[in-house]
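Contributing new complexes? Match this layout with NDP.
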Amino acid sequence: MIGIGLLGLGTVGAGVVEILNKRQEELKALTGKDIEIKKVLVKDINKKREIDLGENIITSDFEEIINHEDISIIVELTGDLEQSYRYIKRALNSGRDVVTANKAVVSKHFEELSSSAAEKNLGFLYEASVGGGIPILKPLQEALTLNNITVVQGILNGTCNYILTKMFYEGLDYGEVLKTAQELGYAEADPTADVEGYDTLRKLRILGTLALQGEIREEDILLEGISKITAFDIEQIKKMKSTVKLIGEAKELDEGFTAVVQPTIIKEDSYFANVNMAFNSVVFSGDNVGELKFYGSGAGKLPTANAVLSDVVDIIMGSYIKRNPLGERKLKNLNTRIKGEYYLRISSPIEEILKNIESISKELLSTNDNIALRTKEIEYIEIIKLLSSLGVHRDKYFLARILE
Ligand SMILES: NC(=O)C1=CN([C@@H]2O[C@H](COP(=O)(O)OP(=O)(O)OC[C@H]3O[C@@H](n4cnc5c(N)ncnc54)[C@H](OP(=O)(O)O)[C@@H]3O)[C@@H](O)[C@H]2O)C=CC1
Ligand SMILES: N[C@@H](CC=O)C(=O)O
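Output block (do not edit by hand):
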C-alpha cells in the first residue's frame, strides 16, 4: 500500500481524488499497490465539500499528516506560497517524496528544493506546474540527455489564453471573461498572477532553467501582462490580419540568454495563433531532435490532476530522473538585446506625448482617443525608458511585440 498525504482539496485536489477513485484497479494493476489517500489538509475544516472522504481524513493540522506513519508521498496542491514551502521542506526532511502543481513555490525555491530532494534520494516532481495537463517537463528532461536545447517558448497560461480568445473571437469584455475563467477553475486564487503575467513568468523560469541547464531567476525575465488590453487594441490587431497571445520565451545566445514574457501579435495562420481557449502549447528545439511541439489543456481540474497523478505513478515505479535535474551553467542575462517592432497604444493623447513618441514610430495607427502606433525596430528597454521619461503610467499603455 502507498499512503498519500494530500495538501489541498480545491479544484486540482478534488480532481486527484476523483481520478484515483475511478482508476483504482488500473493503478493497482500497473504498480502492484493500492494507492490510498490517508489524510487531506485544508484551510477551512468547516467548508461544505462535494467530496465525501469518510471519517477523520480531512484535517487543518499539518502535524497529523507529517506524523502519519503510513504516508510516504506528500502531494501539495494548496496554491499557498510560504506555508507550502515549509510543508514541502518538512516532507523532504522527513523522508517523504513530494509532488506539487505549485509553480509559485517551485519557481521561488527551485534550486534549494531540487538539491534537497536529490541529496536525500527522494522524488520531487512538479509536472503539473507547467502547462497544466501537458506532459512537458519529463519529455524535456529526457530530450536533454541527447540534445542541447537553445530555445523554449510557449503559451503557458490557460486563463490569459482563454481571455484573449474570447475577446478576439467573441468580442467579449475583459472583466466578464476573467470572471468566467475564475468560475471554470482556471485562474489562480488571486488572478493578478495570471493576467499580469507572473504565472507565465514562473513557468518560464522553471522551463528555461531546465532547458538551458543554467539558472534563470524570476527577476531575469522581462514581463508585460495582458491586463491593460482593450477592445480598441483587439480592433487594431485584427486590422493587421493577426491575433495576440501571451508568450514566454527563453533563448540561449552568445554564452548568455534572453528571457521574456509579453503579449505577442502573430499572424492568424501561425502555429500559436491556433492555440485557443484554456489550451497551452510549449515548443522547444534540440540540436538532434529538431523542433518539438506539445499541446493540451493548460488548466482545469482533471487535466491538471492527471499530470499530478502521473508524477505519483512515476515515483511509485521509480521511473523519474533521480539526479538533480538543474544544470550548473552560468549564463549572462542579455535582455538588453531584446528588440523588435512593437504595437504601442497610449490612452492619453496629449500633444507632448505624440510629438516625442513619433521618433520611434514606423506607422501611426490612431491619434484620436488613443495614440496607437507600430514602432520601428527598437530595443524593448528603450520603449520603456521613453514611456517613463514622458510620465506615461503603466496603466495607461498596452505594449505587444509584433512577429511577422
Ligand atoms: N486550477 C488549475 O487549473 C491549476 C492549478 N495549478 C496549481 O495547483 C495548485 C492548486 O490549485 P487549485 O486547486 O486551483 O487551488 P484552489 O484554490 O481551488 O484550492 C486550494 C486548496 O488548498 C487549501 N489551502 C489553501 N491554502 C492552504 C494552507 N495554507 N494550508 C492548508 N490548506 C490550504 C484550500 O483549503 P479550503 O478548501 O479549506 O479553502 C483548498 O482546498 C496551485 O498551486 C495552482 O497554481 C496548476 C495547474 C493548473
Ligand atoms: N492559473 C493557471 C492554472 C494552471 O497553471 C492558468 O490559468 O494557466
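Reviewers usually confirm one structural detail per submission. For this one: The two ends are 55 Å apart (CA to CA).
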